[in-house]
Amino acid sequence: MTEPKSQAGSTARRGRTQLVGMALIAAATLAGSVLLFQSARDGGVWGTTNRGTFVQPPLTLADLAVRDEDGLALTEGVTWWLWVVPGGTCDTECEQALHQLRQLHILLNRDADRVQRALVTADGVKDQRLAEAYPRMKFLAADQAALSRGIYIVDPIGNLVLYYPLSDAGKPVLDDLKRLLKVSQIG
């Protein structure tokens, strides 16, 4: 038995309408996905949650020829580092940053053992006054050409991760460091 001609035409029309509807839904989904991806990539709606600036171009301890107080090369370690780079001599702003980082180190509580603090200069010479004021702080020497004056977070593998101006030595560094320590499987 065959269907009447008018019924066959409406069934075909309904099938085409459903096909066009499914194609439009697929196209809208694809377009929405591309739009969300582009906005996230461009730092639009989502972006990153860090408050510091990623170090660009990426730098490592080996790139900077970092040496400890004894002159030994520092390539990687087992802890995270908080570096203060004064860009010359440690002035008042630098000393305030060192004080803030000491307070921040205390606020890390049980994670404090995972982090070391250092003053990074071109010669790495220990300043006795600063050494007495900050006995747990290390003094490191590094190539200053690639470093800007400020604060750096360095991971245990030896990568410089985030940079902050000296004036941001408090809460922005603490927030990012806590987040890094929480998600880190190293150090």
Poorly predicted spans: none
Side by side, the strands of the main sheet go 1-6-5-2-3-4
Radius of gyration, CA atoms, in whole angstroms: 28 Å
Order of SSEs: HEEHEHEEEH
Count of discrete alpha- or pi-helical segments spanning 4 or more residues: 4
Give the CA-based shape: elongated
Determine the structural class based on helices, strands and strand pairing.
Answer: alpha/beta
Oligomer: single chain
Mean pLDDT: 88
- Main beta sheet strand tally, sense and closure: 6 strands, mixed
The number of distinct β-strands equals 6
Fraction of residues in H or I helices: 25-40%
Terminal residue distance: 78 Å
Strand content: 15-25%
In short:
The protein has 187 residues and is of the alpha/beta class. The protein has helices at residues 5-41, 92-107, 128-133, 171-183; strands spanning 53-54, 80-85, 115-121, 138-141, 150-154, 160-164.
Description:
The protein is α/β, with parallel strands linked by helices and 187 residues long. 39% of the residues lie in helices and 16% in strands. It has a six-stranded mixed beta sheet, covered by helices on one side. It is elongated and about 100 Å long. The mean pLDDT is 88.
